[in-house]
Write a structure and sequence with these properties.
The complex is a heterotrimer of chains A (104), B (492) and C (481). Chain A has a domain at 5-43: Histone, subunit A, CATH 1.10.20.60. By secondary structure, chain A is mostly helical. Chain A has a two-stranded antiparallel sheet. Chain A has helices spanning 5-14, 21-38, 76-79, and strands spanning 83-84, 87-91. With 492 residues, chain B is α/β, with parallel strands linked by helices. Chain B has 16 helices and eleven strands. In chain B, strands 1-3-2-4-6-5-10-11-9-7-8 form an eleven-stranded mixed β-sheet, sandwiched between helices. Chain C has three domains: 3-289, no CATH class; 297-409, no CATH class; 417-480, Arc Repressor Mutant, subunit A (Orthogonal Bundle). Helix content of chain C is 38%, strand content 19%. Chain C has helices at 53-65, 165-181, 222-241, 297-308, 312-318, 322-334, 338-353, 368-379, 385-397, 402-409, 417-430, 432-439, 445-456, 463-480, and strands at 3-14, 69-70, 73-74, 77-80, 90-93, 100-109, 112-125, 129-131, 141-145, 152-158, 194-204, 214-219, 250-254, 259-262, 275-276, 283-284. Chain C has a nine-stranded mixed β-sheet. In chain C, helix 13 (445-456) crosses helix 14. Chain C is elongated. The chains are: A mainly alpha (104), B alpha/beta (492), C alpha+beta (481). Chains in contact: A-B, A-C, B-C. The interface between A and B is large, with 53 and 76 residues.
Chain lengths: 104, 492, 481
């Protein structure tokens, strides 16, 4: 199973990884080999087998709806690379023409 | 140099109860040894020398005052740098988390602290636990204490090397596809991957959430049982942790394993298994048979597919788990990004190493539109077939045994350029993570070159006691006992 | 050409739990930025979700009320995308096996009653908020507030069976009323606890194929949903009639410009890479979790009409909020005149309730028993209507015993004929010219005398008796001439 250079680029974009030309070439080759290996699964008939997502699933435990009383336990200012006026900062994103949008 | 570091955890416990030594002496002896040997081994990324000394002094007072001691009173432990310890750096061996100081304790850390343990420091690992040699650490590789030119295994290579070199009594590792058992085998120690759901994952930086388990790495099966017992049990912070009660320590160590029926999976004896590894395993089984243990062949027919399934599912979960490292809330952030997209792409390109990038790409691919059914879903179906193999086999036998790794520890740099070959070195370990079952590696022999050989024991879910008891029996057979690097062997 | 409109709505309802969906941070509105956060909702390395049971119970209750099928086993899933308001890089949601499917909601419009199908109802977590170009923000930066991150949301997706903007508004009103009845959300669109996206397309009437749909966002009230849909339908028809094509795109409603505008196009199409959430085991619903439902709004409305003989409008208003309906029934219990009780509420009390009626915890700040006693005094002729109005206004401010107060303040009606006749005589003496005007046929002056007499009695004169006596006096004068 081969993989095209454009596919590798697309996957890198989906993964938010800026790849150099060399990395792109390297990964293309390595991914192709791995996918080729993985391709062995095709020979198995799994049409009657339900997928297994959670090993040893024995019943869900819940949290009772009790809010914690004290304020933030985390010092965000120390944690965050860029922090101002109580907020995390990112490069400006105004993704609307109206600039009054609040994403939902 | 004090001989205290060469004791086992169990010996240390009884020594404390008889007040033969104080926590400060024990801690100091370990810190001295770390100071002497760690520069060469690079097992620890950070040593909590001051914190450990302070804590030891507090415990000294407690010992003098008398009264009950916690189950892990004064036991010096090392912690793989994938676990959050409040107020200390938790890097996961990655540049991405180099600036990150954990603001909370992992649940298992909290438990161990409450039981009197002393943490000596954080150990090296493959970046985000992805690797089998600890060469993928952003902070340099760890060396195998048995042979410095060789890898200690991975991803918990730092913890394995620290235990083997007596730089701690025992350590915590994490195992997603063999990351405790394989380095334990390479470093001649005991390493347990508990049943999925037996130990809370809260505070364990996630690699592949439905595979990851925290487990003990120790010098003996008994020590591993003690540490396992200390961290096992339900945690409301981890919804995948089981509500089943944890057996008592006595129950964990009290089974008569001489009556066990052991299964030897025929599919494991394939091309690629080293002759010395094979001979060591068969010799051990022959000795066990001499004690009354029955050994028979079992079949795990889907074994050849395990590595493929593992690398699809684990990388898929990883691609999602590692999306949070984006330079916004914590950790590394690329400078001078002009747009949000650039911030993400540059931060992640510079913050992650090549193996992590490769696995994120593979996982993203397996989940992406048009490929989900063929890769992710297909692999999840085969995952069930692999579990069913084990379920059927365990109807006939109490435990299944195999080598832990196909070969003894390989050389630094030997496989790092070839990811697929590296992946295939986990061939005997990752099926258990797929099935969520417990497995333990313990040392059974040395090769002619003096390299450790490990054997893996596998048990049904929540039956860890079979591993500890069989392990203890095998330890009685090995003479002299292999408990890490021999005291007289110069490391550096 | 005649065009047919097809609308489907996706509604997100914030659940009124006390804590967030997966951590114990308080679920409250309006705290300083990032103060309602913890390692879990910040997505720190190593954290895991712990599912809030109440959120699940609220969603089950809503699904039941929508007559949907609640699945005995459902799965949580991860929806993967990068955005600064999503700290984990994925949203925990439900995808392949949602909590419930195949429900329905009955709506009332001017055209009558219609049932809209509900495709699915599932649970997910809310994202944080981004702030751009506020007073405190630096140039070139967007600010991230994660207080809202992890607040439990219920997503309710309708079938594309809504045919007009009016129906869409009726659907939203019905849904809002339902979640308030169930006490699962305050349903407040202005504060974002109920949010609505719409998929809208048009096609020639009678056509069997769907037209290309546009997705509308950013409509912060039911009224805006109506306006945005009306605008968008008109736009699409205009484009098609002039030979153009509708682009499949996301549009934002701008209230300022009163039009829909395309969102700046993204760099790539979304690929959310959904997969089952490994950190949460399958959600199995136990029978005992399914609580009995309260009387639902449409049932209550019907019962009020039948039992209390109210009009559509009266029962509609009185059942708008369950607490108001409860108040009405308690009032009728103590003052068994349903029509009068309804009138008094609608005319005298409602305006003071209104501002708080969009809150889940709204409760009429007056005891229905006290109100009943005031109304009974009117009916018994002890006080007149004006006094009753004053008393009700006072009762809204503070609690007191109305009968004792009436007695103490001497607010009872004066029905003493002698006293009233004496006041009339006095008045006639003081205003002889007005008396003559009346006798000359200017009957309007009668009102002047009533007014003066009410003043003299400090508003307490029994108005009916007063009228009778005044008329008699005038008649007597007429006879004297």
């Amino acid at each position: 199973m081969g993989i095209e250079r454009e596919q590798v680029q697309h996957i890198a974009r989906l993964s938010r990884l800026a790849l150099s030309e060399e990395e792109l070439t390297l990964f293309k080759g390595q991914l192709a080999r791995i996918l080729d290996y993985i391709g062995m699964l095709e020979e198995l008939d799994t049409s009657a087998t339900p997928p297994l997502y959670h090993p040893n699933a024995e019943g869900l435990s819940f949290r009772e709806d009790i809010p914690m009383e004290n304020g933030p336990a985390v010092d965000l200012k120390c944690l965050a690379p860029e922090f101002d006026e109580g907020h995390f900062l990112v490069p400006s994103i105004l993704e609307t023409n109206t600039s009054e949008q609040e994403r939902v | 140099m004090s001989n205290l570091p060469f004791l086992t955890l169990a010996e240390l416990r009884s020594g404390y109860s008889r007040k033969e030594f104080q926590p400060s002496e024990v801690i100091e002896a370990h810190l001295k040894r770390i100071e002497a040997l760690n520069p060469e081994l690079n097992a620890y990324l950070e040593v909590f020398a001051d914190g450990a000394r302070d804590r030891a002094r507090t415990l000294d007072k407690k010992l003098t005052q008398g009264g009950p001691l916690g189950p892990l009173f004064g036991i010096p432990l090392a912690v793989k740098d994938v676990l959050c310890v409040e107020g200390t750096k938790t890097t996961c061996g990655s540049k991405m988390l180099e600036p990150f100081i954990a603001p909370y304790d992992a649940s298992c850390i909290r438990r161990l602290r409450d039981q009197g343990a002393v943490f000596l420091g954080k150990t090296n690992m493959d970046e985000f636990a992805m690797g089998s040699s600890t060469e993928n650490s952003a902070f340099g590789p760890t060396r195998n204490p048995f042979a410095l030119e060789r890898v200690p295994g991975g991803s918990s290579g730092g913890s394995a090397a620290a235990v083997a070199a007596h730089l701690c009594q025992a350590a915590l590792g994490s195992d997603t596809g063999g990351s405790i058992r394989q380095p334990a085998a390479f470093c001649g120690i005991v390493g347990l991957k508990p049943t999925y759901g037996r130990v809370s994952r809260y505070g364990l930086v996630a690699f592949a959430s439905s595979f990851d388990q925290i487990g003990p790495m120790a010098k003996t099966s008994e020590d591993a049982a003690i540490l396992f017992w200390a961290i096992a049990g339900h945690d409301p912070k981890d919804m995948t942790s089981s509500a089943r009660p944890v057996p008592s320590l006595e129950a964990l160590l009290g089974q008569d394993s001489r009556r066990f029926r052991l299964g030897l999976p025929k599919e494991y004896f394939v091309e690629g298994m080293d002759q010395e590894v094979r001979d060591a395993l068969l010799a051990t089984l022959a000795n066990l048979e001499g004690l009354g243990v029955q050994v028979e062949e079992v079949s795990l027919p889907h074994t050849p597919y395990a590595t493929a399934v593992y690398y699809i599912l684990a990388t898929s979960e990883a691609s999602s788990n590692l999306a949070r490292y984006d330079g916004v809330k914590y950790g590394f952030r690329a400078k001078d990004a002009d747009s949000l997209l650039e911030l993400y792409e540059l931060t992640r390109a510079a913050g992650f190493g090549p193996e992590v990038k490769r696995r994120i790409m593979l996982g993203t691919y397996a989940l992406s539109a048009g490929y989900y059914e063929a890769y992710y879903k297909k692999a999840a179906q085969v995952r069930r077939l692999i579990l069913e193999d084990f379920t059927r086999a365990f109807e006939k036998v109490d435990a299944i045994v195999s080598p832990t790794t196909p070969t003894p520890p390989f050389l630094l740099g030997e496989k790092i350029e070839d990811p697929l070959t590296m992946y295939l070195s986990d061939i005997y370990t990752n099926a258990l993570n797929l099935a969520g079952l417990p497995g333990m590696s313990l040392p059974i022999a040395r090769t002619g070159d003096g390299l450790p050989v490990g054997m893996q024991i596998m048990a049904p879910a929540f039956m860890e006691e079979r591993l500890f008891c069989l392990g203890s029996l095998i330890e009685e057979l090995t003479n002299p006992p292999i408990r890490g690097v021999p005291f007289d062997q110069p490391i550096a | 050409m005649a065009w047919e409109t097809i609308i489907g709505l996706e509604v997100h309802v914030q659940l009124a739990t006390r804590s967030k969906m997966f951590c114990a941070c308080p679920n409250v509105f309006g705290a300083p930025p990032n103060t309602l956060t913890c390692p879990v909702c910040l997505g720190l390395p190593g954290v895991l979700p712990a599912l809030n049971k109440q959120a699940v119970l609220f969603a089950i209750k809503t699904a039941k009320a929508l007559d949907a099928q609640v699945h005995p086993c459902s799965l949580f899933a991860r929806k993967n995308y990068f955005y600064p308001d999503l700290p984990k890089g994925y949203q925990i949601s439900q995808y392949e096996q949602p909590l419930a499917t195949a429900g329905k909601l009955r709506i009332e419009t001017s055209g009558g009653t219609k049932t809209i199908g509900i495709t699915r109802l599932h649970l997910e977590e809310d994202a944080g908020k981004l702030i751009h170009e506020a007073e405190f923000t630096r140039a070139g930066a967007s600010y991230v507030d994660l207080n809202r991150t992890g607040v439990p949301l219920m997503e309710i997706v309708s079938e594309p069976e809504i045919s007009t903007p009016e129906e869409a508004m009726a659907y939203l009103r019905a849904l809002r009323e339902l979640v308030r009845y169930l006490k699962v959300s305050d349903g407040n669109m202005e504060e974002g606890s109920l949010r609505c996206d719409a998929n809208v397309s048009v096609r020639p009437e009678g056509s069997q194929t769907f037209g290309t749909k546009a997705e509308l966002k950013n409509m912060n009230s039911i009224r805006f949903v109506g306006k945005a849909l009306a605008y968008e339908v008109e736009r699409q028809v205009r484009v098609l009639e002039s030979g153009g094509k509708i682009a499949q795109e996301t549009l934002l409603w701008s209230e300022k410009l009163e039009k829909t505008l395309p969102m700046r196009s993204k760099e790539e199409a979304h690929d959310y890479r959904y997969f089952p959430e490994p950190d949460i085991l399958p959600l199995t619903i136990e029978g005992e979790w399914i609580e009995a439902l309260p009387e639902l709004p449409w049932d209550k409305r019907e019962r009020f009409k039948q039992v209390y003989d109210l009009t559509d409008e009266e029962s509609g208003i009185l059942t708008e909020h369950p607490a108001l309906a409860e108040f009405y029934e308690a009032l009728v219990d103590a003052f068994p005149n349903p029509k009068a009780a309804s009138n008094w509420i609608l005319v005298e009390l409602l305006k003071s309730f209104r501002p708080k009626m969009n809150r889940l915890d709204f409760f009429p700040a007056v005891s229905p028993k006290r109100v009943a006693r005031v109304l009974s005094m009117v009916e018994e002729g002890v006080i007149n209507q004006n006094t009753a109005k004053d008393l009700l206004a006072r009762l809204l401010e503070e609690d007191f015993d109305p009968e004792a107060f009436v007695a103490q303040q001497g607010l009872g009606q004066i029905s003493d004929e002698k006293a009233l006749l004496a006041w009339i005589d006095e008045l006639f003496e003081r205003h002889p010219s007005q008396v003559n005007e009346y006798l000359d046929g200017k009957e309007k002056v009668f009102g002047f005398f009533v007014g003066q007499l009410m003043k003299m009695s400090q508003g307490k004169a029994n108005p009916r008796l007063l009228n009778t006596l005044l008329k008699q006096k005038f008649d007597a004068r007429k006879g004297a001439f």
